[in-house]
Design goal:
Low-confidence stretches: 423-439, 861-876, 890-917
Mean pLDDT: 84
Number of helices: 40
CATH architecture of the domain at 8-170: 2-Layer Sandwich
Strand order of the largest sheet: 2-3-1-4-7-9-8
Structural class: alpha/beta
Radius of gyration: 32 Å
Number of strands: 16
CATH superfamily of the domain at 8-170: Nucleotide cyclase, GGDEF domain
Helix content: 55-70%
Length: about 900
């Protein structure tokens, strides 16, 4: 082709795999082979209306007017390159095809479409042709015969934030089987997806990447809306392959409590609270020997807490790097700060051509965002001056430009420029250039807010009460009233999305909406100025109390994992509601909310946080008359607290029992009795038995499946711990019956099945044990209970060990250990390591087993003492049994664990060990 295609173009990029190696191994054969390659590529491109616009070494960059032309050229060239008798030196050529718009000038193409094509090609192997989804869709109707497409799934590509679904071309005569694509999917990360492209900051990305290589803490500083988050995400995507343990994004904007910084980081990393250990210590220990990047976003309102966190990380981990964004530096030793600049804007005093204006970053952003709202929008000679005026008045601040561009679908560009100029002049008193970017951004938001109809203004203000987002149902319940009719909420909410004042998130199970933090803060200020903010916050509290109570029964049904996910989505709103209940001394609603989320706090391991909320609320009712609600709250607080402080948890239980007896509150008595019995089980002296027996006796006469199910279950656990299997078995069956009445609680039924499997295992009934454990594992997976999955896998490992299936046992123990480490449970990690060592010895891997025993013994001598927590006694007794078996199996010449070990020594060793094997 003599003319280069323009507009929507399909690009075909190719290069020779391992060409450098081929040149070094056989340069004489490589030279003629490369000449034949070049001729084949040019012939295939030229005969299919293509245009070779660039060659770099052996790489070909070609453009085509249609996707079909590009595909035909790719398959034609591969047939030649993969054909018989091609050359004495075979050349494996990888190819990538993508379609989109690109700017053509100086015989070259520029833009994100070109960059994405190069990344797609880089994911391919020699001989493989990969297509983007855009190109695949264009070809869909043309593939009825000939080549077909194989879905390769979504892949993250270097330097691109959003993943790309890739398709492999499959056609007769060409190679079809290849290794896994060479994408970044192998590098763990949680980088969020973006709905828009990243524009105008290529040099900024390069600069930040260079700085990040030189410092372990880099803070991007700038005013609100300057683009700190976008730049952080782009840099993180660009360096993801430099960190073998991943890149992890931590969003702090919706966190109001500074004490939640470690837990927010822990959730992003997939960590859980460890009993008796500060969460910050757990996170720091996890990072100690890992090579990863943490991106802390929006630190400005939590500067001190973020500073303390990063300081702890920098002092203990040599390979962890941190990229923070804030409106001010964190002021930590070793910190390097870099101020994020505004996007480049046109010089208002210079005559700029349309071509040069299109190269300006701020103008590029405006044009792209305007096109989203009005697909026919183009930068022309007629509107270019007004676009330049808008970008200049907004000082190149990305958020302000996006807000202005969103108006294109309802206003002409010259109208936007005129109104924006008037509003800015009014707000700044005529001096626009002397004010900081923050005030300019505020002016832009104020201007956009001023253009809204009254209903949209009111709704925007009211929506600011939500933390972490909302659903339409929540918005209708909380925000309707007065001038905002409930029927208007959906339409007004949708219009606010269209105007870029609200963001729609469709990644979850249901559509959710959120505001950028700067918009939310602005709306909150307007709410306090013009509305009854306290009334809105009261309605917010009541709505989320009711929502939590709606969720509660679902936590005890087979589909409970879906409701945990819903609770995750509303966690920030639950926290905001609890905070408001404490501030306004509304203890009742706060306790109802906490109680309703009882199972959620336990399964999600928010033990310390729930305990802290309860203590604040208990202080509010210290001098009030006792009620059943307070008694129930004492039980829930006690149950949760036992997971990290058994003594305090038992104290809550005894207070609940005393109050429940005084009120003749049967449910409270049943729960308090089995909770106290469970706490007393650790002593193994029989004092727990009367509590369990009274709890069960009361449960028999009360229609209360929750209390009965747990009373039977934990009495069964006690009987199991003292090897009274005949008594334990019917208790677990009774618990399952009550759990079915409760709604089919998969977590509790699965735990009972696991214990029944253990009983069968101890009796030597391996068939029954396998059946029970398989059912337990399926239920725990269905419930999303990682701790339950780990426990059942450990039991399956014990079963395989008893049956001498050592490979299966090792696999089960290792998978269980991996989950327990995520769950941060050192007691069960240690127990699992002992059983793994036993199995390794049995399979002949004695040296590996001896290393584990040595590490366990060392940790047992040097580890700090921590408090016993709920469930420890069963694990301790199992640990003692396993340790004795290990000593006998491994032999005195291999083991560093010498002599008899008392129960107290075993407890200290188990609880103190935290082995990373």
């Amino acid at each position: 082709m003599s003319d280069a295609p323009t507009g929507t173009v399909t690009f075909l990029f190719s290069d020779i795999e391992a060409s450098t190696t081929l040149w070094s191994q056989d340069p004489e054969a490589m030279s003629p082979a490369l000449a034949k390659h070049d001729a084949a590529m040019r012939a295939a491109v030229g005969s299919n209306r293509g245009f070779v616009f660039k060659t770099i070494g052996d790489a070909f960059c070609s453009a085509f007017p249609t996707a079909a032309d590009a595909l035909a050229a790719a398959t034609a060239s591969q047939r030649v390159l993969q054909g018989d008798g091609w050359s004495e030196l075979p050349l494996n050529v990888r190819m990538g095809i993508h379609t989109g718009t690109a700017e053509h000038r100086d015989n070259d193409y520029f833009g994100t479409t070109v960059n994405r094509t190069a990344r797609i090609m880089s994911a391919a192997h020699g001989g493989q042709i990969l297509l983007s989804t855009v190109t695949a869709e264009l070809l869909r109707d043309q593939l009825l015969s000939g080549p077909s497409l194989r879905d390769m799934g979504e892949h993250r590509l270097k330097g691109l934030i959003n993943p790309e679904r890739l398709w492999q071309v499959v056609t007769p005569g060409l190679r079809q089987d290849f290794p896994a694509l060479q994408s970044l999917n192998v590098f763990p990360n949680n980088l969020p997806l973006r709905n828009t492209s990243f524009l105008g900051r290529e040099q900024d990305v390069s600069t930040v990447k260079e700085l990040l290589e030189k410092t372990r803490l880099l803070t991007l500083v700038g005013g609100g809306g300057i683009g700190k988050t976008s730049l952080s995400l782009q840099v993180a995507a660009s360096v993801i392959d430099n960190f073998q343990d991943g890149v992890w994004f931590v969003e702090l904007a919706s966190i109001a409590d500074a004490t939640l910084v470690p837990s927010t980081v822990a959730v992003a990393l997939g960590l859980r609270e460890e009993p008796g250990k500060p969460l910050l210590t757990t996170v720091v220990d996890f990072l100690r020997n890992r090579q990863l990047l943490i991106v802390l976003d929006n630190c400005e309102h939590l500067v001190d807490a973020c500073a303390n966190f990063v300081d702890a990380v920098l002092r203990t981990s040599r390979n962890t790097r941190l990229l923070a964004s804030s409106r001010e530096p964190l002021a930590v030793g070793g910190e390097f700060t870099w101020r994020v600049p505004a996007l480049s804007t046109p010089d208002p005093k210079a005559a700029v051509s349309l071509h040069d204006l299109a190269e300006c970053a701020a103008v590029q952003l405006f044009v792209e965002r305007a096109t989203f709202g009005q697909s026919s929008f183009r930068l022309t000679d007629e509107n270019a001056g007004f676009v330049a005026q808008i970008c200049g008045q907004l000082d190149g601040i990305p958020l302000a430009i996006e807000l202005a561009a969103a108006r294109v679908k309802s206003m002409r560009v010259e109208q936007i420029a005129t109104r924006l100029n008037d509003r800015l002049r009014l707000l700044t008193g005529g001096s626009r250039t002397a004010l900081p970017h923050q005030q300019t951004l505020r002016s832009a938001i104020d201007w956009s807010y001023g253009l809204l109809p009254a209903i949209e203004k009111s709704l925007l203000r009211r929506l600011s009460v939500f933390a972490g987002g909302w659903t339409i149902e929540a918005a209708e319940a909380v925000c309707a009233g007065g001038e905002v009719d409930s029927l208007d909420v959906f339409e007004a909410n949708t219009r606010l999305v269209d105007k870029s004042l609200i963001v729609l998130d469709e990644q979850g199970t249901e559509p959710r909406y959120r505001m950028l933090e700067m918009i939310r803060q602005y709306g909150s200020e307007k709410l306090r100025e013009q509305d009854d903010a306290e009334q809105l916050l009261d309605r917010h509290l009541q709505y989320f109390v009711d929502l939590a109570e709606t969720f509660e029964p679902h936590f005890y049904r087979p589909d409970q994992v879906n409701w945990y996910a819903k609770s995750d989505g509303e966690l920030d709103n639950f926290r905001a509601s609890l905070d408001w209940s404490v501030k306004t001394r509304q203890a009742g609603p706060g306790m109802r909310l906490l109680n309703a989320l009882h199972r959620y706090w336990v399964i999600s391991v928010y033990w310390s946080e729930a305990n802290a909320w309860f203590r604040k609320l208990f202080q509010l009712v210290e001098h009030e008359a006792p009620t059943e609600l307070i008694a129930k709250s004492l039980f829930v607080a006690g149950h949760i607290t036992t997971y990290f402080d058994l003594a305090v948890g038992q104290d809550f239980g005894e207070r609940c029992l005393k109050l429940s007896r005084a009120l003749d509150y049967r449910h409270g008595m049943i729960n308090a009795l089995w909770l106290i019995g469970w706490c007393r089980s650790v002593a193994l002296d029989g004092t727990a038995v009367p509590y369990f027996e009274e709890s069960i006796e009361l449960a028999r006469t009360a229609d209360y499946p929750f209390g009965a199910a747990h009373a039977f279950a934990w009495f069964g656990v006690y009987k199991l711990s003292v090897a009274d299997y005949d008594s334990a078995e019917p208790l677990f069956h009774a618990s399952k019956f009550e759990a079915q009445r409760l709604g089919g609680d998969a977590t509790l039924i699965g735990r009972c099945n696991g214990n029944l499997g253990l009983i069968a295992l101890m009796r030597g009934d391996f068939a029954t044990a396998k059946s029970c454990l398989d059912e337990s594992l399926a239920m725990q997976k269905g419930a999303g209970n990682k701790n339950g999955i780990a426990e059942t896998l450990w039991l399956q490992g014990r079963l395989a060990l008893r049956q001498a299936d050592y490979a299966e046992a090792i696999a089960c123990f290792r998978e269980s250990l991996g989950l327990y480490r995520i769950y941060a449970n050192s007691l069960w990690v240690t127990r699992g390591l002992v059983y793994l060592a036993i199995t390794l010895v049995a399979s002949g891997q004695i040296d590996h087993a001896a290393q584990i025993v040595t590490a366990l013994d060392q940790q047992g001598r040097e580890g700090p003492s921590i408090k016993l927590h709920l469930g420890s006694i069963v694990a301790i007794s199992e640990y003692q049994e396993a340790l004795g078996e290990l000593r006998g199996t491994i032999g005195a010449d291999r083991s560093t664990v010498a002599g008899a070990m008392t129960r107290e020594q075993a407890i200290a060793l188990v609880l103190d060990a935290n082995v990373k094997a």
